[in-house]
Write a sequence for this structure.
């Protein structure tokens, strides 16, 4: 079954890398460049999972997540946070406490690890 | 919150406390000798003044001794505190019983304990003021003997009473107002008694400058400074007044002139005080302002580093991701040379990310932002993962890694990310600063409640002359600067700060061209 994921990331090279990687892994990929755009796409297309960057212009990841959680469907959709904050960072810990499934430290971990996490969350191999 | 005290000043005051105690002791000894050897001048300073009573003389010896003894501190030894308690109770009782004799018109026979033979038929009893004062001094010393702050405060209250009585008597002598030091003729305080009481009062009050009333004068801030200035001004005014008074009495000038001199002196002292205080207030305000400015600059600097690290990581991450996908042949096979080159790109990029991490970590340390979050951690796993990560570097340098992880190593309550930073810095240093085909021996074990992590290399070593600077920020040893160019000089600075935060210890032994061994100790539970 073809799972649909939404990637929200303002850094275009990163967005491209992620989008290419997940497409090759057999996912149907939706893209957005900031929280506002991401919220629109999410509510319209209802993806199976959202990969969300934290620091973005227009609307950041935290604000977008809060808006998303106001929606019935949005309350349940799994979210994976993309960040370069350290795992012991206070901001990150606060955000993680509000419900996302995982966080992914961009500069430290390999794309392979992210793919694994997404697959595990969606129960696909 | 209590204001801070000037420790330096407080210690000076304690010395004065001992000096005053010694003087009181001396007065006592001289007066006792006066009685013993019938030296009248030692019993009363001027023929017209009251005689010091034998009991007063003996009690001053005891008071002087006890104040000196207490100012040394009993070092928590029971015997000494009991001895101090017994002596202070003795002083109190003798004073208090004499007071009762006066109030109820009794004769308890206590006035003839010492030197009865020298007194003849007459009873030489200490004055009521002295009796009251010894009661207060005995009480004060009793409170001080416990060395507890709350008790000492009450001791200070008691000694303040004694101080006021003594000062009133002293000024009575100075201004020749006999009513202030005598109640009935020849029933007053002796002159040296008054002086000795004033010295006792000061000696006891400043024995513990860190407590209560005395604390006011040793404060570090503006209040302490103001208190000291005003006190000095008071002493200055009193001293000059007394001198002027004696001048008047000697007939150097008339009453009107004397009043004018009084006025000028008081005004002068106040003007000096005002001028001086305002100048130093301005200086203090300026110093505070520049300190605040320095803090702001520091904050801006660390924030910049933080932001820069974050921004630098973004492109580096993209490079890492694209290289990773290429290296995994996701978009077509690479030929061996292409793979070799791309491996290099990937490795160098990773190095750059590590440098940025170091920079960010050290700026977090400077901001005091290390947040330790203890979790159950398997140190063995962290070590294995790190070694795996370092595999390319180890292979390249053909370093022989010998590792020994204790089989039954307990899980540790600590911050995994922090531990990782420490292990990573020490391990990568060992491999980096050991010439090719060297050996790095790693030992991870435990004893009691401590984890021990030891990394010994056969590397370049750290020159003896520079070993004291190893944990300082930006340190890089002279002998490796030319050999390895990529260190930041932040790794061990970070490791040390992190280990301290985790409640552990780090040290090392090193010999140039033989190698270095780092020892890390961590508590199993933080």
């Amino acid at each position: 079954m073809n799972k649909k994921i939404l990637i929200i990331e303002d850094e275009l090279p990163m967005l491209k890398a992620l989008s290419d990687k997940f497409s090759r892994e057999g996912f149907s990929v939706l893209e957005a460049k900031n929280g506002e755009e991401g919220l629109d796409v999410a509510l319209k297309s209802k993806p199976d999972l959202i990969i969300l960057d934290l620091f973005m212009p227009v609307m950041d990841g935290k604000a977008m997540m809060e808006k998303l959680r106001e929606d019935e469907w949005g309350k349940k959709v799994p979210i994976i946070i993309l960040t370069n904050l350290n795992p012991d960072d206070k901001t990150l810990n606060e955000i993680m406490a509000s419900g996302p499934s995982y966080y992914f430290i961009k500069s430290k971990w390999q794309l392979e690890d992210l793919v694994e996490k997404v697959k595990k969350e969606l129960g696909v191999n | 919150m209590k204001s801070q005290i000037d420790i330096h000043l407080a210690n000076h005051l304690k010395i004065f406390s001992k000096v005053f105690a010694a003087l009181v002791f001396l007065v006592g000894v001289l007066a006792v000798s006066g009685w013993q050897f019938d030296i009248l001048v030692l019993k009363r300073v001027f023929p017209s003044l009251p005689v010091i009573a034998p009991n007063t003389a003996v009690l001053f010896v005891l008071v002087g001794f006890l104040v000196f003894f207490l100012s040394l501190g009993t070092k928590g030894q029971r015997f000494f505190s009991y001895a101090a308690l017994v002596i202070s109770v003795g002083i109190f009782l003798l004073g208090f019983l004499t007071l009762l004799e006066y109030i109820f018109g009794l004769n308890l026979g206590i006035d003839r304990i010492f030197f009865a033979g020298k007194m003849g038929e007459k009873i030489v009893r200490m004055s009521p003021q002295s009796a009251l004062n010894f009661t207060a001094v005995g009480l004060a010393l009793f409170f001080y003997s416990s060395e507890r702050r709350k008790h000492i405060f009450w001791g200070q209250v008691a000694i303040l009473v004694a101080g006021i009585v003594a000062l009133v008597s002293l000024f009575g002598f100075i201004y020749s107002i006999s009513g202030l030091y005598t109640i009935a003729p020849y029933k007053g305080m002796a002159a040296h008694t008054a002086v000795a009481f004033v010295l006792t009062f000061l000696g006891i009050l400043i024995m513990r400058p860190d407590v209560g009333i005395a604390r006011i004068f040793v404060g570090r801030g503006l209040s302490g400074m103001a208190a000291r200035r005003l006190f000095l001004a008071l002493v200055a005014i009193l001293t000059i007044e007394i001198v002027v008074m004696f001048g008047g009495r000697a007939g150097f000038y008339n009453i009107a002139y004397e009043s004018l001199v009084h006025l000028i002196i008081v005004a002068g002292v106040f003007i000096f005080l005002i001028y001086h205080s305002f100048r130093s207030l301005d200086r203090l305000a300026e110093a505070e302002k520049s300190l605040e400015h320095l803090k702001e600059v520091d904050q801006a600097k660390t924030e910049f580093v933080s932001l820069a690290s974050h921004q630098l990581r973004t492109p580096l991450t993209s490079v890492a991701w694209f290289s990773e996908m290429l290296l995994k042949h996701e978009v077509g096979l690479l030929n061996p040379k292409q793979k070799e080159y791309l491996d290099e790109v990937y490795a160098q990029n990773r190095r750059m990310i590590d440098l940025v991490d170091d920079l960010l970590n050290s700026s977090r340390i400077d901001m005091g932002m290390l947040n330790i979050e203890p979790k159950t951690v398997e140190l063995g796993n962290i070590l294995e993962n790190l070694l795996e990560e370092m595999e390319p570097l180890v292979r390249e340098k053909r370093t022989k890694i010998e590792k020994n992880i204790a089989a039954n190593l307990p899980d540790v309550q600590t911050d995994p990310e922090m531990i990782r930073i420490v292990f990573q810095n020490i391990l990568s240093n060992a491999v980096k600063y050991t010439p090719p085909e060297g050996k790095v021996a790693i030992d991870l074990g435990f004893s009691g409640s401590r984890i021990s992590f030891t990394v010994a290399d056969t590397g370049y070593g750290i020159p003896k002359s520079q070993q004291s600077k190893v944990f300082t920020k930006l340190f890089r040893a002279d002998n490796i600067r030319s050999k390895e160019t990529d260190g930041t000089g932040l790794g061990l600075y970070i490791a040390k700060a992190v280990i301290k935060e985790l409640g552990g210890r780090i040290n090392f032994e090193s010999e140039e061209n033989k190698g270095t061994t780092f020892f890390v100790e961590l508590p199993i539970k933080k």
